[in-house]
Amino acid sequence: MFFRNKLFLIAATILVVSVGLSALAYQVTHSQAIVDAAHAPATTAAEVKMSEGGSEVHISTTSHNVTKSSMADMSQTSSTLPLESDPAKILGVQSDPQTNFPGIGWVRLGYPSCGWGNLRGSVLRSTVAHYHTQGIRVLLTVCQGADNNSLYDPAPLQDAAQGGADAVQCGNEEMKQDASVSFLYIPPAHFARFYALCEQAVHAVRPGVPVLLGSLDPHVGGVDYWPLVNQVNYLNQMQLAMNTQVYPGGNWDWHTQILGLIDSWHNGYPNSSVNSLAGLFSFWAQQFGVSMDSGALGHHLWVVEGTGCFKGCGIDSSSGYEVAVSHIMTLITDVQTAMHSGVPFFYFSGKDFVSAGYYWPIGVLSVNGHAKPLRQDLGMGSVTLGMTCGGQQVTVSDQETLLAKMYQGCTLPYNYLSVLFS
Known about the structure:
- The chain contains eleven helices and 14 strands.
- The protein has helices spanning 7-17, 20-23, 68-77, 121-133, 154-161, 188-205, 225-246, 276-288, 320-341, 399-407, 416-421, and strands at residues 43-52, 55-64, 91-94, 106-110, 137-142, 167-170, 211-216, 258-264, 301-307, 345-347, 353-355, 358-360, 385-389, 392-396.
- Strand 1 and strand 2 (55-64) form a beta hairpin.
- Residues 3-78 have low confidence and may be disordered.
């Protein structure tokens, strides 16, 4: 749900045409810090050679110069956690530094290239370090720039890499071809260059940090077959560019990368037969040649934004009941689906938000960061679920606690459907 500019115009356009599925992919709930950014650590120049049209293209980049002073600066602002080796344990929420999500061990934040905010330089490093002191890991999304020479500017990529995040998503919805957000689309060969520079910057600071290859814009799994095939074609073109222009004669293969995925549909509503996320898992498991249920898919695919849909997707947005029930059922269905397949999952959004005059009630907290009842059309405590956590019964009445308890492996009561639909 990140984008770089023209927020209100784009959001308004999307809402007018009621394209609820793709609208969510443009909303910024971007992280913001409270102090100004400091200067990035010193770097030294280097070059990445690329050949294009029979001639070499030299793109100036920089490599990290981890001097004693920069290492000291990073040691003061970074409290690194061990890298998470088990994808099934990567379960988080879209967040901002001002909001707490008790019981949730991962957050997804955005670099300023995604729209606004000042999570760069020392602010970024200290923010990530603060999360680490609480045992919370960070997925940092670095959005691509415009399709011009600025796309290859190494400065923001290296600054983001030095932030100390536990995983970095390089690019966001780079495949989207939509006139209302035309700035998002980057041709495959150009995105290949951007991704190579971004991945290189991240691994220069800390080899082994998961680097996600952008994100797949939302389509309905099990329905939108050809749009998914087009995404595969884009990746194939990117692979060709990697091996002929970025790394001539190389054997780079997108099947060895981690893809970010966005899903926005009313999964679980009106019944369990509606599950776009499962359909997407099935499609991409086939592409990677793995089983959905083996746990292997989590090494290739991360759900960077899993959320519901209430506009332009068959939900009556004027019905508080439908919006509320479809929302909570999507949360439950998405988490169950991701955890069953061992795929990393980040729920969107952490908080409700307002965009272009419209209220988006798709967070687990209110727009002010307060707890939301399980059935958000009813009062707090009107609906509760008795969950089983390690042999103990826990009564859950709000959405954030529900999400956290599900992440922790707690089980829902046998009658949760009738409770939530009543």
